[in-house]
Design brief:
It is a single chain. By secondary structure, the chain is an alpha/beta fold. The protein contains 15 helices and 11 strands. Strands 3, 4, 5, 6, 7, 8, 9, 10 and 11 form a 9-stranded parallel β-sheet that branches. Helix 11 runs antiparallel to helix 12. The longest helix is centred in the last third of the chain and has 18 residues. The termini are far apart.
């Protein structure tokens, strides 16, 4: 049983990665319904939480049926990160997660996210301050290092454990790689093999199938995997992986009707949390995944992306059902 303090996550948990403009409450709920063991909010800027910026505070709202859930924060200032963790902890999440892995330029140029991998001593110091500021478990998500010449993850993971984090998720790329190339899990395996490491080590990067999940488990000994891009428009992946882990058999893929109805439910959930325009924009990122591989879907997908109202989207989904696509 994998645990983070007293949080039981199962024998080999499958985590939903925090993703900006993706892992809002509606998407977290649909992924949870299909078997995600642990979900995270979108990452939220420490400065925004401290200043009580509405967009930031909205990101850390969640409901009881989403548990266990982590609130992920990012920043570059020790005081701001400590105070942001305290604000986030007031929401009573199960976990506070620190983002030391985001490779996006606007984050990195402020020396946040993976930008801090250039300054590992400061990264560890800020992490320790966050751990000391709250009474709930603190975890970290990060990358192998800054670039091919700087991959300190084995040592860094040990240092982060020493200052009190209770789990670590490692993406198998450097910041310089962004999302290009193939994720290298070799160093993730070395972190797990380190005899001094006692906290759960989760792997992330290119996990997009049940077979890939089992391969990463067997080759690198990780305690679980985190899924990001492969889950967009495809919450079914959690059920497929969970079933495969338990039985060694493939769960039947969702029918076209199931995909349509899940997409419909997802959209309806989105508009309970956001205004119509925001919900429609959020869903545009999901349609390609929901309807990938369906014959003759391109004209419908173009119309879905361009739809200006929820009524319009629902009409298109109804038409897809009528045509038995």
């Amino acid at each position: 049983m994998v645990t983070i303090r007293n949080i039981k996550l199962g024998d080999f948990p499958i985590l939903l990665a925090p993703m900006e403009d993706i892992t809002g409450a509606a998407f977290r709920k649909v992924c949870k319904a299909f078997g995600a063991d642990l979900v995270y909010t979108e990452f939220v800027a420490a400065d925004g939480l401290i200043r009580d910026v509405q967009k930031s505070t909205q990101k850390i709202d969640f409901q009881e049926d989403e548990r266990p859930i982590g609130i992920q924060i990012f920043g570059n200032d020790e005081h701001a990160m400590r105070r942001a963790a305290e604000v986030a902890a007031e929401q009573n999440p199960d976990i506070i997660d620190i983002n030391w892995g985001c490779p996006v330029k606007k984050v990195v140029k402020k020396c946040s996210g993976s930008g801090m991998l250039q300054y590992p001593e400061k990264l560890v110091k800020i992490t320790e301050a966050v751990v000391k500021s709250v009474n709930i478990p603190v975890t970290v998500k990060t990358r192998l290092g800054w670039d091919e010449n700087s991959k300190p993850i084995v040592t860094l993971s040990e240092q982060l454990q020493d200052v009190g984090i209770e789990a670590i998720t490692i993406h198998g790329r450097t910041r310089a790689q962004l999302y290009s190339g193939v994720a290298d899990w070799t160093l993730i395996g070395k972190v797990k093999e380190n005899p001094r490491m006692s906290i759960p080590v989760f792997g992330n990067g290119d996990v997009n199938s049940p077979e890939k999940t089992v391969e990463m488990r067997q080759r690198y000994g990780v305690d679980g995997v985190m899924i990001g891009r492969a889950a967009i428009g495809n919450p079914f992946i959690f059920k497929e992986i969970q079933h495969y882990l338990k039985t060694g058999q493939h769960f039947p893929p969702p029918t076209i009707k199931e995909r349509i109805e899940t997409c419909r439910s997802h959209l309806l959930n989105e508009i309970t949390y956001k205004n119509e325009r925001a919900a429609l924009l959020e869903m545009r990122r999901q349609y390609s995944g929901y309807f990938k591989g369906i014959p003759n879907i391109k004209p419908f997908r173009i119309q879905l992306v361009g739809a200006e109202s929820v009524v319009g989207v629902m009409g298109l989904l109804d038409e897809m059902v009528r045509r038995e696509m």
